[in-house]
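As the work plan foresaw, the team has encoded backbone shapes as discrete tokens. One protein thus recorded appears below exactly as we store it.

:::
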Amino acid sequence: MKKKIFGVIIFCLVMAAVSAQEVKSFLTAGAVDSFVKNYTKIQTDLEGLGNKYDHVFDSMEGSDATNMIERIQAIKMPDEIEQIFKKYGMGDQGLVKMTIILMGTSALYLEDVVKEQEAQYANIPELADAFKQSKLQIEDLKKSISKSDMALITARKDALVALLLESE
């Protein structure tokens, strides 16, 4: 199940076409803190469900970042999944919150990677367009998340990136 979640998120990074509509905020500092504190437990409990709810995660595929969040909201989330997030302090719409946290963290991490690579390969002008395109996609992804949610994710960036890298 973890691979499906991360696969969907990676797909969103590639397909980060975002509409210009106002982006709703979902996160609180408490939800982000709970996610950091309980990430491994949440993953373990979700994996413990096996393939029982693959249809939920499959229905998220093929969406750009904004549409994926809307699609997750539209899904009648099984109580078992909701209870896992509530159990670990994420509250209602825990899957939406986790998705936003992971998308924002991925954007921040990739932004750093692109900056490092751009500095490292600055003497190769042929790569300039690729770096520019990568930056645009990352910015589009960040725009799919509310500014207040991105601020909360940015405040816990180091811990969240560590979790993201640990789970690969």
